[in-house]
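Minutes, project check-in
Item: structure for the 171-residue chain
Input as provided by the requester:
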Amino acid sequence: MTIDNDFPEFSPEEEEPKSKSAVKREMTALQKLGEELVNLSPAKLAKIPMPEQLAEAVMLARRLKNREGKRRQLQYIGKIMRVIDSEAIQQALESFHHDSLAFRQHFHRLENWRDRLISEGDRAMEDLLVDMPELDRQHLRQLIRQAQKEASQNKPPAAARKLFQYLRENS
């Protein structure tokens, strides 16, 4: 006796459809990711790879003061995030977090540059400008001279901090 089955068999390779709750959790997570974008500083926001439509939506949300309007704009950002590949945005945001490995490596690299600039002067500055050509040579040289003068006079490292801050803001 054979059983005629009109129902297709379920194979384990096929993905089960997501539940409403799972879909809602994903949408909320993407909306939170969009909220993180809105709260970033302009310099960090410029480093995030995103489509023009998302960038415009984020800029509008930054300007909104009305609470309800901002909430609706964040929902719209979440909607945009669902149709784009948000993986690159997620990775870029993670690199900004202080506890991430990439952030710490970047921070140590900048500290090493600062120390090298103070100890070696113009030689190190030329190497740095090859690595970071967008830096202002004259301003950088001025910061280096101030930090070297402080170090030679055993003063607190205020100029060294300014040099580090300049490197961090422009890297």
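Outcome recorded: The chain is about 70% helix and 0% strand.
No further action items on this chain.
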